[in-house]
Specification:
This protein is of the alpha+beta class. It is about 25% helix and about 30% strand. It has 2 domains: about 160 residues; about 190 residues, von Willebrand factor, type A domain (Rossmann fold, 3-Layer(aba) Sandwich). A 6-stranded mixed beta sheet has the order 18-17-16-19-20-21, sandwiched between helices. A 4-stranded antiparallel beta sheet has the order 1-2-14-10. Strands 4, 5, 6 and 9 form a 4-stranded antiparallel beta sheet that branches.
């Protein structure tokens, strides 16, 4: 008996040892990424040199897509801002001479909200970049930003502008409100370089302004009705070096729209529940008509179909290359009933599995809704939201990319983003109201 127990004990120890060994088994998955800048921005200083009151001078500033961005076919356009910030530098001779021997000797000043400061903020320059010599000062330069305009090349007209005689920022109860200039570059529009013009409208000094100073301000303020007295410099700043840092920052990168993807099979899944109402439903139809026109259906290009959902889901139009058929389906949309999102998605899934979708075309589902599910596709499902999410998951498992456009104030953005839309951004969009839905949908088609 003792021998049997001993043998059993040894066997148990061997098995346990194997199990423990397996627990420490390791598999290494190599993860790498090459990170590149989207924009190419020249880092040379823009130096206007010595200038005189009421001069109007300009310098060029070119901002372009980086070569890496141009070469990457997965992305198309970049939104960016030009922000103006205070400049800190080492000066001598009462601020009339700036040490420009190295770019490292100047820094961008950081604006910090400070209610105890006279203007509600202070500018932090940080530590001086080198030990100061006798007679030198480290600190913020008199602000040149209010006098600098940013004028776009308008080729094409997709950038903002900012005239001279403005405030670069303001302090609000919510923090800092920056007066940014918006820029946009898009490969699909052959817009890979923005050639900005940086204009300087030189201020005058108190007591020495010409009689036409107010007219000079009015001519260069971009119709902002700037008060000339607010932009008159104190006499103690005469002869000093003024400065401003232009901060170019990428705000967003977009993946090309549907028109860039060529051959796609797209199913519209349209909410026509009673919460939309007749007036807003008319806006939905108008927006969808424009969407189909922009998509440009073709035998070897995009095909489209449509399901709709209210109390039940309905297949309005099978996948087709006929714009007329799609426009006719859109015209059938009327508002009334509950929100059976499950039905709309389930029928769209069925269409993608019907054999009418093309093997060499990507399957895309575009859901347009003003609310959240409150009716079941299968009677007694229990939770309409969970049911709709399960049908969306099934579609995504089959390779369908699901986009969601929520419109109005009744949408549950978190639910639509996390449970319905495909996980890779940008696949979820939210129009503020039905009047802006057309722009939102057409932008999804645009190859931008």
């Amino acid at each position: 008996m003792k021998k049997i127990l001993f043998a059993f004990g040894v066997f148990t120890a061997v098995v346990l040892g194997a199990s423990m060994f397996a627990a420490f088994e390791a598999h290494v998955i190599n993860v790498t990424a090459k990170i590149e800048n989207a924009l190419a921005v020249p880092l040379e200083s823009i130096d206007f040199g010595t200038v005189f009151p009421q001069e109007h001078l300009n310098k060029p500033l070119g901002i372009s897509l980086s070569q890496s961005f141009v070469d990457e076919g997965r992305v198309d356009d970049v939104d960016y801002i030009i922000r103006q910030k205070p400049k800190c530098a080492i000066t001598s001779q009462d601020g009339t001479v700036m040490d420009k021997s190295s770019p490292a000797l100047s820094k961008t000043g950081h604006v910090i909200v400070d209610p105890s400061a006279p203007e509600g903020y202070r500018i932090d320059c940080g530590d001086a970049p080198r030990p100061l010599l006798s007679g030198e000062t480290w600190g913020v330069l008199p602000m040149l930003c209010p006098y600098i305009s940013k004028e776009p090349d308008n080729q094409p007209e997709n950038d903002g502008s900012l005239a001279s005689f403005h405030e670069p920022f303001e302090i609000t109860p919510g923090g800092i409100n920056w007066n940014d200039t918006l820029g946009h570059l898009a490969k699909s529009q052959n817009d890979i370089v923005d050639n900005w013009t940086i204009d300087l409208s030189v201020p005058c000094f108190g007591g020495f302004c010409a009689q036409d100073w107010a007219q000079f301000v009015a001519d260069n303020d971009g119709d902002n009705n700037a008060n000339a007295a607010d932009y008159t410099q104190p006499i103690e700043n005469e002869h000093k070096v003024f400065g401003c840092d232009l901060w170019v920052e990428v705000g967003g990168i977009s993946i090309p729209g549907f028109a860039c993807q060529g051959k796609i099979d797209l199913m519209l899944v349209v909410d026509e529940s009673g919460s939309i109402g007749p007036t807003n439903m008319a806006n939905v139809r108008t927006a969808l008509h424009s969407f189909i026109d922009a998509l440009i259906l073709a035998t070897d290009g995009p095909n489209a179909g449509q399901t709709s959902f209210a109390t039940i889901g309905v297949l309005d139009q099978q996948l087709t290359d006929s714009p007329a058929a799609m426009h006719a389906a859109i015209d059938t949309l009327v508002s009334g009933g509950t929100t059976n999102l499950s039905g709309g998605i389930a029928l769209a899934n069925d269409e993608f599995n019907s054999g009418r979708d093309r093997a060499d075309a990507a399957n895309i589902m575009l859901v347009v809704t003003d609310g959240q599910p409150n009716a079941c596709y299968i009677p007694g499902c229990g939770n309409p939201a969970i049911e709709a999410a399960s049908y969306a998951s099934a579609g995504k498992a089959d390779g369908t990319e699901i986009y969601v456009v929520g419109v109005g104030s009744g949408v549950n953005a978190t639910y639509l983003t996390n449970d319905i839309a495909s996980p890779e951004p940008p696949t979820h969009y939210f129009a503020g109201d039905f009047g802006t839905l057309q722009t939102t949908l057409v932008d999804l088609v645009s190859c931008e």
